[in-house]
Specification:
With 470 residues, this protein is of the alpha/beta class. It has 17 helices and 16 strands.
Length: 470
């Protein structure tokens, strides 16, 4: 008889040196503050949130070495030691000669796409994230997503579900003309499609197409280390390479690299724009100086750059990456076992729930994803974000909603912040959510801005909530 080995608890590969108290609230209290926030968790006070899974961007915990770097940061205006440290680390990682620090990723996007974009220009990506699309569309350009058709199926199991569809890419180049394609953007991992990885073979295929048509290719690699983990463990020929070696190979395929270092830079603030072309780099540097700061700090303090330089090395540690991917998988796999419809397979930084399938009776015009986001806060003080028709929906000429392809909710896991007991608490709250599957009504938007409406939009419940006596 074969002995079945008991699965051991996934232990965090770090010790806790400092604690931050969490506020315990009642369901009645949470209903009141959520109503005051217009049923938009972005507008809640963080003090009223118990488990914050809104984003993994800038919400992680830094290491002891990073905090030590904070104390030794050089705050010189120009040519600081901390800048030289960061520049050396990023040049080694990317192989690109021109390094521009920014205060966060969207600043790097605004600089690069502000120069490359404009009316009539087309940007093509596996999937543009929200700020990327907004920065592109703000210039008057058009952003087009081209995942393979089967990647939109939340249940299908594909090893690299974040890949770009190269046949669609060739078709768009033919349709719009190569001279009108401003750039092909490879987002790794692919955030909006469920945190799914992109294969090295797919990036190489896109690179070949770009070379044949003389089109720029940008790597949006804010989660490049997490993507490297999946390449090593899922793609033939990479099992013996280190995570850092895989990242260097992938980044070397791009003409530019855009990064929010608030993800795999393991810092609370910071971004990067790196380039190969000297002329474009000079244009970007000029805009950086006008809008961010001098070229050797770009809107960051020296201590921020020091912490980022350290974080960009720590993030490739094998023990850290194993913990990071497996702990996210723990949440997703246990949710699936409960009967919660999740995007499968589980990605690197977040678990994505198919809200349309979980709440089948709520019409897309009433935003089932927003309903789930609000229910998770009300039932458990858990804050997360809708990635569906609130974030990506548009309107036709008659003002009718053009829904997103999927109605998802993202539970993004901050790095090195929560323990397994916190995640088990989240799993327990989903027992309450399962009892709400039959509800028929969601929310309507009462206010929205023209861009990135999910950040500041306000909502009303179609049927008012009953406030418990507690």
């Amino acid at each position: 008889m074969t002995e079945v080995k008991k699965q051991r608890t996934l232990a965090e590969p770090f010790k806790i040196k400092m604690v931050e108290p969490l506020k315990i609230t009642t369901e009645a209290y949470r209903i009141k503050v959520l109503e005051k926030a217009g049923y938009n968790p972005f507008l809640l006070s963080s003090d009223d949130v118990f488990i914050d899974l809104l984003t993994d961007s800038g919400t992680g915990a830094m290491s002891d070495k990073q905090w030590a770097g904070i104390m030794s940061g050089d705050e010189s205006y120009a040519g600081a030691r901390s800048w030289e440290h960061l520049e050396a680390v990023v040049k080694e990682l990317t192989g690109m000669p021109y390094i521009l620090p920014t205060h966060q990723g969207r600043a790097a996007e605004r600089i690069l796409y502000g120069i490359l974009g404009g009316p009539g220009k087309i940007f093509i990506s596996n999937t543009h994230f929200d700020t990327t699309r907004a920065n592109i569309e703000f210039t008057g350009a058009t952003a087009i997503d081209i995942l393979p058709d089967n990647a939109y199926d939340p249940e299908i199991d594909l090893p690299f579900k974040g890949n770009i569809d190269t046949d669609k890419l060739l078709g768009l180049i033919k349709q719009y003309g190569k001279e009108n394609i401003a750039a092909v953007i490879m987002t790794v991992t692919n955030n909006s499609s469920g945190g799914q990885p992109v294969s090295m073979a797919n990036v190489k295929a896109a690179r070949k197409i770009c070379d044949e048509h003389q089109i720029m290719m940008v790597i949006d690699g804010c989660r490049i280390a997490e993507n490297s983990y999946f390449v090593k463990h899922r793609e033939a020929g990479y099992q013996d390479k280190t995570y850092e070696e895989i990242a260097k190979e992938m980044l070397g395929l791009g003409d530019a690299f855009v990064m929010s270092a608030k993800k795999d830079g393991l810092v609370n603030m910071g971004g990067l724009l790196t380039l190969k072309d000297a002329t474009l780099a000079q244009k970007c540097t000029n805009l950086l100086i006008i809008s961010e700061g001098f070229a050797t700090y770009g809107g960051l303090a020296g201590r921020d750059m020091e912490a980022m330089a350290i974080g960009l090395k720590e993030v490739f540690d094998a023990d850290y990456l194993h913990y990071r991917i497996k702990s996210t998988g723990y949440l997703g796999e246990h949710l699936k076992a409960k009967g919660i419809p999740v995007v499968w397979p589980i990605g690197g930084h977040a678990v994505y729930i198919d809200a349309k399938k979980l709440y089948p009776n709520i019409p897309v015009e009433e935003y089932p994803g927003q309903a789930l986001v609000c229910d998770l806060y009300i039932k458990g003080g858990i804050r997360c974000v809708e990635i569906g028709s609130v974030m990506f929906g548009k309107y036709d000429e008659q003002g009718k909603l053009i829904p997103a392809k999927n109605e998802l909710v993202r539970l993004a896991i901050p790095r090195r912040v929560y323990t397994q007991s916190h995640i088990d608490y989240v799993l327990d709250i989903f027992d309450d959510i399962l009892e709400m599957r039959s509800q028929h009504h969601g929310y309507k938007i009462t206010y929205e801005p023209p861009f990135l409406r999910h950040f500041t939009a306000k909502f009303e419940k179609m049927i008012p909530l009953a406030v418990p006596a507690n």
